[in-house]
Amino acid sequence: MDFSDTPEEAEFRASVRKWLEANAQRARGTSGRFTGTGTDDIGAAKAWQASKYEAGYAAITVPEVYGGRGGTPIQALIYRQEESAFAVPTGVYEIGLGMCVPTVMMQGSDAHRDRFLVPAYRGDEIWCQLFSEPAGGSDIAALRTRAVRDGDDWVINGQKVWTSGAHFADFGILLARTDPTVAKHKGLTMFIVDMKAPGVDVRPIEQMSGGAEFNEVFFADVRIPDSDRLGAEGDGWNVALGTLMMERMSAGQGFGFFGATEVLELARKTEIGGRPASSDARVRERVADWWINEQGLKLLSYRAQTALSKGELPGPEQSVNKAIEAPQAQEIAYFARQLRGQAGSMDGEEIDEDWVHVDRSWLWAPGMRLGGGTDEVLRNIIAERVLGLPGDVRVDKGVPFNQLTS
Amino acid sequence: MDFSDTPEEAEFRASVRKWLEANAQRARGTSGRFTGTGTDDIGAAKAWQASKYEAGYAAITVPEVYGGRGGTPIQALIYRQEESAFAVPTGVYEIGLGMCVPTVMMQGSDAHRDRFLVPAYRGDEIWCQLFSEPAGGSDIAALRTRAVRDGDDWVINGQKVWTSGAHFADFGILLARTDPTVAKHKGLTMFIVDMKAPGVDVRPIEQMSGGAEFNEVFFADVRIPDSDRLGAEGDGWNVALGTLMMERMSAGQGFGFFGATEVLELARKTEIGGRPASSDARVRERVADWWINEQGLKLLSYRAQTALSKGELPGPEQSVNKAIEAPQAQEIAYFARQLRGQAGSMDGEEIDEDWVHVDRSWLWAPGMRLGGGTDEVLRNIIAERVLGLPGDVRVDKGVPFNQLTS
Amino acid sequence: MNFDFSDEQKMLREQVSRALTEAAPLTEARTALTGGFEYSERAWNAIAEAGILGAGIPEEYGGLGLGRLEWCVTSEEIGRTLAPVPYLSTIVLAEALLAFGSAAQKNMWLPRIAGGQIIGTWADAEGPRELRADNLQVEFKSGRLTGKKLPVLDGNIAGLAVVLARTDDGPALVLVDLEKGVSRRALKTLDKSRPQAELHFDGAPAELLGKAGEGWTAYTQLMNRASVLLAFEQVGAADRALEMARDYALERHAFGRPIGSYQGIKHKLANIYMANEIARVHALWGAWATSTDASDLPLAAASARVSANRAFTLAAQENIQTHGGIGFTWESDCQLFYRRARLYAGLLGPELDWKERIVTSIELSNAA
Amino acid sequence: MNFDFSDEQKMLREQVSRALTEAAPLTEARTALTGGFEYSERAWNAIAEAGILGAGIPEEYGGLGLGRLEWCVTSEEIGRTLAPVPYLSTIVLAEALLAFGSAAQKNMWLPRIAGGQIIGTWADAEGPRELRADNLQVEFKSGRLTGKKLPVLDGNIAGLAVVLARTDDGPALVLVDLEKGVSRRALKTLDKSRPQAELHFDGAPAELLGKAGEGWTAYTQLMNRASVLLAFEQVGAADRALEMARDYALERHAFGRPIGSYQGIKHKLANIYMANEIARVHALWGAWATSTDASDLPLAAASARVSANRAFTLAAQENIQTHGGIGFTWESDCQLFYRRARLYAGLLGPELDWKERIVTSIELSNAA
C-alpha cells in the first residue's frame, strides 16, 4: 500500500503542475466552486480551454486520432487533481466534455467526429445535455418531447428543463420520443441539436440561491437532419445510459462546501460561554463526526484512483460521495450559523468571507441533494446495483407510453 | 388550559389511590416493566386481578350488565396512571383484557358474554391473541392457518407465532382462513379457541434477551364449534381490525426504558476527563435532545387524555409514541454503555441495578422496534392514515389467496 | 386535564386564519422578500382590527384583558401564512412593558400597542459576538444610550424598542423612542421577507425599564416568553411546509405513480409529522406556562424553542427535497419556508444555549 | 497511488477466509456464547497453522517478517465469521513486545506467540471507573504487581499479559506471566462468545516492558494499533451483517413481494453499505499508517475506531430490524452480531475520547 505516485505518474504530475504554475493562478481562500456556469466569463473560459488544448490537457484520454492525447484515465485524474488547486474557469465545459462529447465520439458517425470533436476540445464550441423534462423528474424515460419524422428530417416539439449552460451552448445532445406506441424506454432516440437553430428558445431558471445556471429549453418545430441521429432509432435509452455512466469516471471531486475543518477554524474566532467555541466539546464532537465522513470520501476517491490506475472501473464511489456530502453540507451550514448567534440570520456579506461561504453552502446544499440524482435515487442505485435488491415496483412496466395515465 | 383533574376526576383519582395504597406496594427504583409475561408468578397475578375485580377496577369502562363498572375512558386512564406507580403484576392480562375480551364482548353472542366476560375480568381465565404467523410478518392477512367446516364444527390446522402468554392462556381469539379461493383479506374468519383443547400445542420461543414470553402455537385437527365463531364467516379481517384498534385506546404508556433523566443521574456517578460526566457538554446536549422527545410523548398523552375526557377518539399518539421511544431507547442504551468505559461490555449484574436497567433496555429495544408494528410499518400508518398518502403498491391486490406465488 | 386551547380560543384561531388567508397569502411574504415593502400593512391591519394586539393587555391599558393564549394562537396562524408582519417584535415589547414597566410607561405605550398605532421591537444582539451579561457594549448612562445593536428584527420600522444595555450597576433593560437620536441601517439578510436593521444609538434619550442591575434576569424572562410565541409561529410554518410537501407528493408522479406512494417519501413525511407534533405539544405547554406564570416556564420555553427549531428546519428543508428540482427555483414557495426557518432558528440566540437551559432546569427541579 | 491490499495480501485473505469458513462457521460463536467452550481451538489452530500469528513478527523471533497488513486482513476475516478466538488480544500483546520489549523479552515470548504456543492479552481497565494516567490503582513495585484489572479480554485463557500499572515513576507497562500469582474470575458479560475476566494480582512477579514513567504514552500507541486491528474485525462483521440482511430481504416476502423491494428496507441497507465503506477505507488508512509507522497513525487509528463502531453498530441493529420478529429470537444469528458489536464498541474505551483525539490531531497537523 502506497499513497504516492508511480514514477511515471509522478513525472506526469510534475509536468502538469509546472505547466499550471506557468499559466494560471493558485486558488485562495475557502470558497468553493458553487458559481456554476451562470455568471462565468465565457471569454475567459474559452481562452483557458484553448490553452489546455494547445498543451495537450484538454482531452487526455481521447485517442490522438480524434485530437486527444491518447493518455490514461489516471493521467486525466492527476490533471484534475492538480488543476483543482488553481483558479481557472472550467465550469462551462464540465458537462459537455464530460458527458456529451464522449457520447458523440462513441455513437456518432465519422463525419460527426471530424466535425465536432476538435472544436469541442479546443473550447470553441460548448455542449449541453437535454434529457430532463418538467413532468419527468427522476423518471427521465417518461419524457414527452416528440421527434416526428418528416422526409430526411426529424421535427422536434417539446420542452426540456434543468439544462445547465443552455444559454451559451452551441450544440446539445437531445433525447426525444420517436415512438409513443411502445413502452416508455423503448420509443426514445438520441440526436445532436444545433442550439442556434430556429425554434430553439432558451429561458434561464432563477434558482432560490439567486443565480440562474440552469434553463428551460423549448423546441417549436425544430428540424434535425436524420444524419444527426446518435445511435439507432428507438435505442435512445441505451445511448443515454452510456452518457450517464460517464459520470462514474470522474470520481472523487469535492463540491467545495464549507467543511469540518473550516467549522473548527471558524469556531476559533467565536465564543461560547466566553471561551473560544473551538474548545467547546459539542463543537468538537461534531467536527470529528463530519471530518470522518469527509476524510472517508477522500479515501474512497483514492481507492477509485487505485482502481483506475489498474485499468479497472471504479465502484459506486460517486453515488456514495454525493449521498453523504450534500446532506452533511446542509447540516454543517445549519450548525455553523449558530456560531454567530443572532447574527446567523444576517447575510455573510455583512460579516466576512467565511460567512459568505457558509451562506453559499446553506443555499446550495438543497440543490446538491437533488441534482444528479436525489438523496433517494442514489440510495436506490446503491441498493439495486451494489446490493442486488429489486427495483421499485413499476406499475408502468411494459405499458405503451401513450396509454400511461399520467 | 389546565393540567389538573376536574373535581369528579380528582375524586375518582383519590379513591383509586387510597385503595391502591391500602392494597399494594409502591414501585421502587428505575427498572421498567420489561419482565413481560414469561417469568411472572401467575398466582400473584390472578390474586391481584381478583382484588381489582372486587373493588370495581377490573373493567372500568364495561357496562355493569356485563360485570363492569360502567365508567368512562378517562376513569380507566386515571386508574392506569395511578396503578403504574405500584409494583403489581398486570402483564399477563394486558393483551387479553385490552384486546381479546373486548372483541368477544362486541362480536360474541349473549351466550359468549355470559360465559366468558366475568371470569376474564375476575382473572380466573386468561386470554391470548392468535393472529401472527411465521410467513406473514407485517402482512397479517397473508396467514395460512386453515379452518375447514365439518358438520357443526370447524377443523383447525396451522401455526401461529409470537403469541404472548399462550403458555398459560385458557382461551384465545384465533384468526384463520376459511376460504382460500378469494382475495387474502376476504377469506378470513375469527374464532374463540379453547387453548386446552386436544391438538393445541404451545412451544415457547426463546428471545435474544434470554426470556421466553412469546410462543409458537401449533394446531393439529383442533375442533371448534361453529357457535364459537366471532362475527360472520369471511368477515374475520374486519373483526381483527376492530381488535387492533383497541390499542389506540390505551394511549401514553411508557415502556420503562432507561431514559434521559436516568442518563443524567448515572452520569453524576461516572467521570469524563476526571470530572463528573454529568458536567460534560456532550452528555448534557444528548440528555436535552432525548428529554424533549420523552416529555413530548408525555405531553401527547395528555392531549390524548384531553380528547378522551371530551369523549373524542385519541389521535395516532400510540404510533408516534413507539416510533420515537423504541429507537431512542436503543440509542440511549448504546450511549450509556460508554459512560462505564470498557466495563460497558460487562453484564450489569457485575456492577449495579442501574446498569442492569441499561442492559435490559439495550436487549429489549430491538424487540420493541418490531413488536406491535415495526418502525417502518408505524411510519406507513402515519403517512397513510394521518397524511393521506397512498398505500404501498400492492402486487397481491385482489389475487385469490391460493394463486399468490409466495 | 384539559391540555388544549379552549373552544373560544379555537374560534379566534379560525377567525385569524380566515383573515390572514385573505390578507396574507404567500405572495405577501414574496413581495417582502423581493423588496416590495418592509411589512404587509394589509395583514398587519387585519391583525390589529381583530383586536389581537391588545388580547394580552389588561383593559385598564386599552387591551382586551383576555390572556396570552390568544397571542399564541395568532402566532401559529402567522407562521402558517408566513405573514410578513412585526407581530413577534411588537408583542415582545408589550411583554416587556407588562412585566417591567412603571405605571407611567404602561399608560404611555400599552394603549398605543393595543390599538395598533405603534410597532415595537427588542434589541439585544451586538453583531456576531457572543451575547453575555459581562460583555455588553451598548451603554446606558445618565439617561442616554450609546452604541450599536444588530441585527434588530423590524428595527427599521419600529417606533419603540426595549434595549439590553450595560449600566454602572450591571445590565439593564431600557426603553427607547426610536424616532429620537437613533440612526438605522437596513441589513442584508438571508430572509428579506422579515426586515432586520442595525440601530446606532448616539446618545439617544432613553429610560430604565425595571431596575438597573436586574436587566439580565429580566431579559432572560422576556426571552422565555418570546420563545413560546416564536415556537407557535414555527409550528404553524412547519405544518404548512408539511402540507405543501404532502400535496405535491400526491400530485407529482414518477414511474407511473405518485411520489407519495414511495416509502422514501412516506417515511420522510411521517418523520416531519412526528417532529411537528412533538413541537406542537411543547409550544402548548409553553403557552400554559407563560399564561399561568408557572415555575416550569424556563423549562417549557427551552424545550419549545429547541423542538420548534428542529421541526421547522426539518420541514422546510425536506419540503424542498420532496419537491425536487422545482423546489429549488426562485419561483417556488419552498424557499420562503427555508429562509424563514433559518431566520427563526437564529432569532433568540444559539440553540446550544437553550439545550443547556433544559438540562439546568431538570437538575434544579430534581434538586428541589 | 496504491490504496489497496496487494495481490499477495488478497490471496492470503482468501486463504484465511476459506480456512475460517470451514473452521469457524457461526455455530462456533454460538457454542462459545452458550458456554460450550471459551474459544474455538479449531479456528485458533487454523489461524496458527496458516502462520498468521507470526506474520508481523521478524524472522529472527520466529515470525514470517511480512508486516502488519497480513494481520489486518486476517482480522477482517475473523470479523466476518465472528470466530471466537483470542486473536486481537494475542496480537496486541505481540505489538507491545515488538514496540517496547527488550531483546530478552522478545526472544523469550515472540517465538511462542508466532508458533501459537501461548495466548496473550492486555489488561488496562479497572472496572467502571474512568481510566486515566492519574488514577491507576494497580501498582507495580519491586518486581511485584498488586491490584485488580477488569474486564480483561481472554483474561481467563491467556498465559501472558501486558498490564498498565502505576509505579513510583508514573504509569508503566509491565509484563506478567499469568500462570504465577494471579487469580482469575470469569465475568458475566453481554457477549459471552468472547470471554472476559477479572485478574487479581496479589504480588504477582512482573517485569517492566519499556520504561517506567513512559507507560501512558506507550499504552496510547499500543491502543492505536489495537484500534486498527479491531476496526478490521468490525468492518468484516458489519459486512457479514449487511449480507445477512440483504439475503433475508430478498427471501422474505410481505404483501406479495420481497421486503427488499420496499424503499424503507432498500434505503436502510444502502445507509449501512455507505457506513461500511467509510469504515473500510479508514481501516485501510489505519493499516497503512500502522505498517509504515506514519505520523498520521493517531488520527487514522481514531477515525478507524469511530467509523468502525458506527458501521458495525448500525449494521448489527438494523440486521435485526430487517429480519423482523425472527431476528429477535435466541436461535437467530442476528443476536451474535448485536452482542459482538457492543463488546467491540466498548473494548478500547469511550468513543467520545476517540472523537476528541481526532480533533486534537487535526489541530496539531494544522498547527504544524
UniProtKB/TrEMBL annotation, chains A, B:
One Pfam match: Acyl-CoA_dh_M
UniProt xrefs under InterPro entries: Acyl-CoA_Oxase/DH_mid-dom, Acyl-CoA_Oxase/DH_mid-dom_sf, AcylCo_DH-like_C, AcylCo_DH/oxidase_C, AcylCoA_DH/ox_N, AcylCoA_DH/ox_N_sf, AcylCoA_DH/oxidase_NM_dom_sf, Mycobact_Acyl-CoA_DH
Domain Acyl-CoA oxidase/dehydrogenase middle: 128-222
Domain called Acyl-CoA dehydrogenase/oxidase N-terminal: residue spans: 6-123
UniProt entry keywords in alphabetical sequence: FAD, Flavoprotein, Oxidoreductase
Residue stretches making up the Acyl-CoA dehydrogenase/oxidase C-terminal domain: 234-387
Keyword Cell division part of the UniProt annotation: no
Cofactor (UniProt): FAD
Highest rank taxon of the organism: Bacteria
Keyword Flavoprotein listed: yes
Family classification: Belongs to the acyl-CoA dehydrogenase family.
Protein name from the UniProt record: Acyl-CoA dehydrogenase family protein
Organism name: Novosphingobium aquae
Classification of source organism: Bacteria, Pseudomonadati, Pseudomonadota, Alphaproteobacteria, Sphingomonadales
TrEMBL record, chains C, D:
Pfam families, A to Z: Acyl-CoA_dh_1, Acyl-CoA_dh_N
Residue ranges annotated for the Acyl-CoA dehydrogenase/oxidase C-terminal domain, each copy included: 213-349
Protein name: Acyl-CoA dehydrogenase family protein
E.C. code: 1.-.-.-
Domain Acyl-CoA dehydrogenase/oxidase N-terminal: residue ranges: 6-116
SUPFAM superfamilies from the UniProt entry: Acyl-CoA dehydrogenase C-terminal domain-like, Acyl-CoA dehydrogenase NM domain-like
Family: Belongs to the acyl-CoA dehydrogenase family.
Top-rank taxon, per record: Bacteria
GO molecular function, one term: oxidoreductase activity
Organism: Novosphingobium aquae
Names of the cofactor(s): FAD
CDD domains given in the database record: ACAD
Keyword terms, alphabetized: FAD, Flavoprotein, Oxidoreductase
